[in-house]
Amino acid sequence: MKPPPFDYHSPRSVGEALEILAATGRDGKVLAGGQSLIPMLNMRLAAPGHVVDINRLTELAAVTVGPDGVRTGALARHAQVERSGPVAAAQPLLRRALRLVAHPAIRNRGTVVGSLVHADPAAELPAVLTLLGGSVRLARRGAVRDVPAARFFTGPLESAAEPDELAVSALFPALPPRSGTAFHEVARRHGDYALAGVAARVRLDDDLRVAAAEVVCVNAGPVPELVDVTGDCGHRAPGTADWGAAARAVRDRIDPEADIHASAAYRRHLAGVLAERALRDAATEAAGG
Amino acid sequence: MGEPVGGGTDIAITLTVNGVVRRAEVPGRRLLSDCLRHDLGLTGTHVGCEHGVCGCCTVLLDGEPVRSCLMFAVTADGHAVTTVEGLAGPGGELSPVQRAFAECHGLQCGFCTPGFLCVVTALLRENPVPTEEEVLEGVSGNLCRCTGYQNILRSVRRAAEIMAEER
Amino acid sequence: MFGEPVRRREDPRLLTGRGRYVDDLGAGALEVAFVRSPHAHARIRDIDVSAAIDVDGLVAIYTWEDLPASLAEPLPLLIPHPALTHGRTARPLARDVVRHVGEPVVMVVARDRYLAEDACALIRVDYEVLRPVIGPERAAGSRRLVHDDVPGNVGAHLVQEVPSAAGTGAREAIGAAPHTLAFRLDIERSASMPLEGRGVCARWDADDGSLRVYSSTQTSTSVRMAVAAKLGLPLPKVEVIAPDVGGGFGVKVMHPWPEEVLVPWAAVRLGREVKWTEDRREHFVSSAHERAQVQFVRVGFDGEGRVLGLEVTILHDHGAYTPYGIIVPIITSTQLLGPYKIGAYRVEFSSVYTNTVQVTPYRGAGRPQGVFCMERTMDRIARHLGIDRTAVREANLIQPGEFPYDQGMTFQDGRPLIYDSGDYPRSLRMLRELIGWDSFGELKARAAAEGRRLGIGVGCYVEGTGVGPYEGGHVQVTSDGRVHVSTGLTSQGQGHETVFAQIAATELGVPLERISVVTGDTRRFGYAVGTFASRAAVMSGNAIALACRKVREKALRIAAGVLEADPRDLEIVDGEVRVVGAPGASVPLATVAVLSNPLRYAFDEEAARATQFAGASPPDAPPVAEGEEPGLEGRDYYSPIRSTFASGMHAAIVETDPLTAEIRVLRYAVVHDCGRLINPMIVEGQIHGGVAQGVGGALYERMVYDEHGQLLNASFMDFLMPYATEIPPIETAHLETPSPLNPLGIKGAGEAGVIPVSAVIASAVEDAEGIPIDRMPLSPSELFDLRRAAP
User: Fold this and answer.
1) Do C723 and A188 touch (CB under 8 A)?
2) Which domains does chain A have, with CATH numbers?
3) Is C415 helix (H, G, I), strand (E, B) or coil?
4) Which residues of chain A does C698 touch, with a Cβ-Cβ cutoff of 8 Å?
5) Fewer CB within 10 A of the terminal residue: chain A, N end or C end?
6) pLDDT tens digit string along C189-240?
């Protein structure tokens, strides 16, 4: 289990990185944290001709918190974002989700943006970005574009990033007032990819009744999809909203697959159970905040 | 280093390993674990799965635990690495964590042990008085097939005690 | 020393990175990688290596055609048995047909492993893909064959029948019983999965014509014989050393692996040091698995739950080959009986070939399956009769006054299955107390009131440990007063260096620090069997004790001359031989060692005392007396008439989530009896580790093959070995019933922890859920399905 040979590039600036990516095209692969890429290389499931190591682009390590939300640079490690107090204050869902990502040693190296670009529907961060309506900023030589989450994840392990593009940052928008979030998942072992998981966001109106309730399920389809259950739970106070109906709606609208760890029926059931728990918690937080 | 380096060509790197500046010439694909073990002769870091799950190869990169099998040696160029060989004191005296593992029978075959020692060393440095849950979370990314973890958890608690006693 | 929780002498090196495992050796050695079959069943049409030969650093490529005759033939069938009528083993490299994914086809030697893998990737093997046979039930009797010359894929078939005391057969007894039950049980595949894979490093000394092989093995002496035979080398020119080994758990007792003969062969052929370090993916698909069985049970019993007749029919999945014989199903069949007196017993197994990785022993070696069968049976009887599960067990236990107890069968060592000692009723009482069996009902009710589901389970086992034929020990006291102990069997983390030193310290009266222990190094001890079947402490422990006693006797004899005392009045304390009751009169063992070896040449002052003009020996007798040998050393062997039988009983409390179907073990309690404890700390560690592997087998670990014979979870991502977060706190209590069979009164402890765990967890989940649990492992998804299917 040793990686196949490749040409190694270690650009010293983003501009240089973009030049290299433009030149290598489909044969190039960006290396950030490497916690998903290197296992694939070790197993020789991937054999890029060029690896573009962006670990020296320290300008991409920034995590900025502003009124619009949290922007994480391409080199911001999971652990760095997880531990940040300002991030937790601005967008508490990030820390909640990050604590469910693998294990601490992986999070010390893995990057938030890398997890997004990897676009694994079983992973937590794509669900979070989708739920929050965030976006990924993609740079190519001479151009930059922001791709919203809804268009960023295009299939299992497929994203909108083109071969000559570098994902330089991601934006996780801040929550509007009277909003709350929660993330619940069930994994076989602590730290494993979830059998099912649910990120939920609930917003209350001025009368503290549910104005919006949405979830994104992990491992429930080829790409993370926002499920709006506002109509199902009723325009009521969190304590009397019909979260059971919302959970049933979630179960009906997702399309999980079976694998060696769980049947599709179990995953669907579990998503419902977790959706109810997550929605309740999110609503409680919204009411308290 | 802006120029690409071909797969067959070696790249000169400099690492500070256990406080000592070490140089090596490695291909871009050389895993840090292999570089430590085979290029630098530090075989205390073990390789159990090469896909980042078992934690045997865990070392401290600039003080933080990372999987050395999920990192290229070239990426570590210029950084500081601590391996199990660097945990004991300058005179070879065992660190509190090492002593606790010996005292509590926290190891059997010893293959996973270097990874645990690195993780626990970092854990207790950051959080000298961890709760039971924090201890469990702290070691939760490392597999052990021998001990059933009972004595590893005891060892972590004991190490915290020893460190408190010696502070 | 004996019986004390002495700290391990292995630890200082293992804690500082100074342990030496196979891959830590052979810096600069050439490295090997293999092209392995991607198909479960295929015929090799052609192998094209042309694209690989330009790989930089490539040294050699070997296929079956390159092998000498001795290596071209199938590897040995290690343990023949009359019932194994169709034993089949693989060739080191496949000749024409591959029978499981992972079977080695081409061997590549290169400057390093990266380059060897590059070359492997460029080698093209043209396969004619054949339809595989997957799953024991589909294999049994099928016309689709794993081996063309094994009809119905049945490699072995064995019936053992033990009539009741009155001479009634099991079927008749069941027919006549007041109550009968029949059911089916399933246990899936798992594997030893040590964190260090296999590994071989071979050094050929062309000048000397000698070969040194390091192997991560549980049996270096037997690997040595295999390598010498396969390579046609004189045995004294081959040495095999098991250095530090990163766990074995059974898989490394299998030998010779293809790699264990191919790597030394390549080293000789190339005149270079050659090394192969198994990677994790290779370990999944090309080492060995265990556990998979389907069991059909019929039982007849009376109103108290006493078993009057038991009939078990086992379908055992043996994978593609049977190099280790049928030890696993034999152990299942015999150890199934546990601590119970069964009226009449009939067991029949068929061992079938499938196109999957071969099956060889994994810690427990068939016992977990047998115990699962018997303990599920006990629980079924209790449920049927509406009586307490421990009461049913109680009603069937062998009583302390009934030892030795003859179960009337033939055990895995070919000897009668006679239990030597134990106290099963007491063990059960201790367990009930430890787990709080009698008050659990209240706990369960309180939890239920909060919407939580708790269940309690129990499982009992008897484990034959310390099987023969023998082990040996050598003990030498050198003139510096140090004691060098060696034994041939190997260590994989059990702390042998510590416990054998404790035994020697106790026997010889020498401080522990002066004793060093070497295991698994044929340069030090050439005769051994190996480490398996919880036998190391019993076999080598007793052999070392016997060797120490020889040394002690000789030391007293020599010292008696010096001290002008009767040897019977001497004792050895703290490394000094002294006259009992006369503290002034003593001589250090170091001096005794000097005197034991009459010298012509002095190499230091101490040695001068033994030279010919020093007057150490009387002038009218030969310096080495008749019947004596020079040197203060002794060698002895322990060869037991039969196995000794350890036992234990486990209980667990589990919680199942009513909604998510997650299963959590809240408490796990163990009562364990392995006779006299040499080092309780180490015994506990063994139990902890075994229980954790058992929890893995009960709730997490399985090898998942698809219908094409692809192993779908050949990684640590998907083969779910428990982390610390999945293992409950383990509470232990010890009972010490000495074995009457060996001088130290000890029984083995290595496998104990793992044996009943699946049975215990199944019992507890069944109690929590009220749904029969008939298969292991059990995932939340499966529990969810069981709930939905329940009436």
Assistant:
1) no
2) 1-53+60-174 (3.30.465.10), 179-288 (3.30.390.50)
3) coil
4) none
5) C
6) 999 999 999 999 999 999 999 999 999 999 999 999 999 999 999 999 999 9
